[in-house]
What we know:
Blueprint: H1 12-16, H2 46-50, H3 81-85, H4 117-121, H5 149-155
Amino acid sequence: MWGQGPMQNITTQRHDYVPKPVVPTESFKPPAKFHCVEQPFENRTVNRMSYLDPGRVPPPESYAPAKCYEKPSAKMESETTQKMSYQPVCVPSPQRPPWACKGQYQKPCQRLESTTIYKSSFMPPGEDCTQYMDPCSYGDCKPCDCICPAECIATDPCACNFPKAACCS
Length: 169
């Protein structure tokens, strides 16, 4: 649906925002007036004139009392609170503890048995087991041949059923 009339070459944008004339602004800078000063510079600036040196100021007098030692007229007591509160404790003479006094070494009168439960239970194959002592032979234990060890212990709590090497059985 195109219009049938002629097309205008001015758009709404161009109609509303027309270019404005640019006029250069005048400079507000004052004209340069350079001239030579005939007199020498006296170093009198605003800062120096505002903050003058007041000179030496005497220190203020202290209100604290004068620090001088006055010897007391009466004799000083030798007993102080510290000395009276904490009396010296006499250290007792050192004593040897009873466990430090040991008798002279005495050799054991019996030979040390070299048989252990491990040696008598697990021997290498081919070794003579007659030298080892059966752990059940020196007690009141009755050997138990039950299949279940719990039954033996229930009937006789002293029942021995130690594993033995193959050559001892």
